[in-house]
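Q: My labmate handed me this sequence with no annotations at all. I'd like to see what the chain might look like in three dimensions before we decide whether it's worth expressing. Could you predict it?
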Amino acid sequence: MSKTLFELKQNIHTLGQQLQKVETDLAEKAIDPKAEMDEIKALQKSKEDLQMRFDITKKQHDDMEAEQKAALQASMKNGAGLGNVADPKQRVIKAKAELIRSTIRTQAVSSDVFQALGDNDTTGGNKFLPKTVSTDILVEPTVKNPLRNRSTVTQITNLEIPKLTFTLDDDDFINDTETAKELKATGDVVSFGRHKFKVFASVSETVLNGSDANLVSYVENALQSGVAAKEKKVAFTKTPKAGEEHMSFYKAGITEVSAESKYKAIKAAIAALHEDYREKTVIYMTYLDYMDIIEILANNNTSLYTAPPEQVLGKPVEFSDSAVDPVVGDFSYSHFNYDLAALYDRDKDIKTGMEQFVVTAWMDHQIKLKSAFRIAKVTPAP
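A: Here is what I predict for the chain of 382 residues:
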């Protein structure tokens, strides 16, 4: 895989240090009468090898630097630089497109791009995702993740928040004994961790060479879809990865409520919640389960098929095929947090030849109060 200009600079620095050390050792051995000739010859050979590597790497660096300078000058000459874009929105789109193209082509990203996207890159080797791109991809996706309609989403490093949004001067105000027990057992503060995941956007040469707007839209939609899929997966999986059990509604220790049908189980789950949570309760379930309930309740009454789900089940409904057992509760106590230090990189799919724009991010999903939720289960027939 070809290296970036920044990586070549690092390699030159490392090889230069190694070469300097070998030259020093060789000079010391040459004047040491006790030194064996084999040692001196070995050091001489090592010096020649390192010198050759240094020269090759430096030539690669100089050629790439010259190529990038020429491309930048040509870009500015043709009026393609960011400085020629007056509209702030178009400037951001152009900066995003340059970030994507430069990353995939292993070229250095100019400081103008980072500044336009919210970061001032002073090192020339910044691999942190700029603020504008990070926010658009991680915090404001356009694709559908039904949890985003109700859950909280933030982007704060080392986030710690209280489980309850308010407190009084004594804890007798907590009328729900289950909540009181949970706070006593687990504390009243939630600390968010960092769980790494990668999202890949496959980019063809046609898209890469297309318009800035199409390139940015294509890559952002792909990455946002991946982020949404990851959120749904960790929240509704029944087989979470080790260390991610707390993210899943099904593995976090939420109380299950059983009945002979899904309809009755959902009604019982709502009733089992304390009134503090019941008022804001939302039901997450599969569309298939809902249609099965409608079919049973309708009993040839077609008007029920057009009724809003809230009218049928008594609470708002969000559909997700991942919610295989309905999850009932106040989803303001479901909270996704992303670490600020998202990274970007490139890769290549050898099988298809497609370039990959890769984002590495750290996310945590905390169910701040398990007592704010119930899971509706069907009791197996005897």
